[in-house]
Amino acid sequence: MSGSDKADRRERILRAAVQQGLLEPETAVLAGFVDLDGVNETVTSLRSAFPDSLRVLHAFAAKANCLVPVLEELRLSGMGCEVASAGELAQALEAGFAPEHIVFDSPAKTRAELARALSLGVAVNADSFQELARLDEILAARRSDSRIGVRVNPQVGAGSITAMSTATATSKFGIPLEDEGNRRRLLQTYRDRPWLTWVHTHVGSQGCPLDLIARGIAKAVEFAEEINAHLGHRQVTGIDIGGGLPVNFADDETTPGFDTYVDHLREHAPALFSGEYEIVTEFGRSVLAKNGFTAAYVEYTKTVGGRPIAITHAGAQVATRTVFAPDAWPLRIEAHDPHGRAKHGRPVRQDIAGPCCFAGDLLARDRALPLLDVGDLVVVPDTGAYYFSTPFHYNSLPEPAVHGARIDADGRVTFRLLRPAQAAHPIPALAGR
């Protein structure tokens, strides 16, 4: 789907939402939307990027959008699910994922969580030597059908957003391969535990260049080969390469694509394509971000210090990362009239503010847009992952409704409610009234 097609679909969905009352200036002032056709197209592009000759499970990273109906849609498209908490595991099971298509990656798994995952047959990636010791205890008392691996940190460095870089020299994730004694200790760990049959790594996501990601995966593949050579047989049969394809937030073009990512993997880790390993991927943001948008009404406008400000209902509660780290997570803003039609007036530099009660609650500062008026709608593209699906409950602001949208061959838009709007807490009557 081209960038212009995405913009056209976004406006068509927005206008239909207004017409059908899913956005309304008194009772539905904020909502999230997921283009379900776009999600299916993205999943198809991911699957087609990897050769058919390989055994690949593409597991969606549930943290990117943990709404159960969204996870159901992804399951029906053929994906598995990667979870990083007991809550996400419960959501994945509720969405109907078979346990063997779920991967559990939390760095802080409790004994009870590990025991449950192993009893279900969920794949587990151990994050530390201490976690491996817990697995020893559990597996001494029961057998499990789970695929079990170790997350290794290839220590290849950071991208431009340190918080999104998980393969630095001091990352909290995984067992660092280059720390003194760890490689030797890991080789012995695999020798002592025939049930360890996978290697897992994840280099990072937004801000990480593809070469950095591919070099980190190459080190994990090389280590899997080293384990098998050391043991004299192919004990490691699978490699979980994580996710992390960065998303273009600058415009509607989807770059880089999954095919470009695979090209980098072929260059740096050719053994991954030998057919000798099963592969798991864990993409999240790159599957959902560009297939979702947030829409909110402008409640008030004012001019302060000579600059216009539009006060909207979308702020830190649905765009937490952007509000608190705007340089790392800039978002586009689009101006629409009350009917959902794009505004095309002369650009005016203005601030786009949210409803939260602190001065920094701004979606955009000094942004050139057609001048926003009371009752207009602002659209925030590329927010299908980590934004409206993971709200921040500041000021006890209610979670907005989230709607899935499809457009048929005749251009009709149909909606599926993915999450109802949270009801505001009623105000109790005063005593004596």
* Estimated share of beta-strand residues: 15-25%
Residues in helices, as a percent range: 25-40%
- The tally of strands reads 18
Low-confidence stretches: none
Overall mean pLDDT: 96
Structural class: alpha/beta
Main sheet specs: 9 strands, mixed
Oligomerization state of this entry? single chain
Provide an overview of this structure.
This protein is α/β, with parallel strands linked by helices. Helices cover 29% and strands 23% of the residues. The strands form two sheets. Strands 1, 11, 12, 13, 14, 15, 16, 17 and 18 form a nine-stranded mixed β-sheet that branches. An eight-stranded parallel β-barrel has the order 2-3-4-5-6-8-9-10, surrounded by five helices. Helix 2 runs parallel beside helix 9 and helix 8 crosses helix 9. The longest helix is centred in the middle third of the chain and has 22 residues. The protein is elongated. The protein starts with a helix and ends in a 14-residue tail after the last strand. The model has no long low-confidence stretch (mean pLDDT 96).
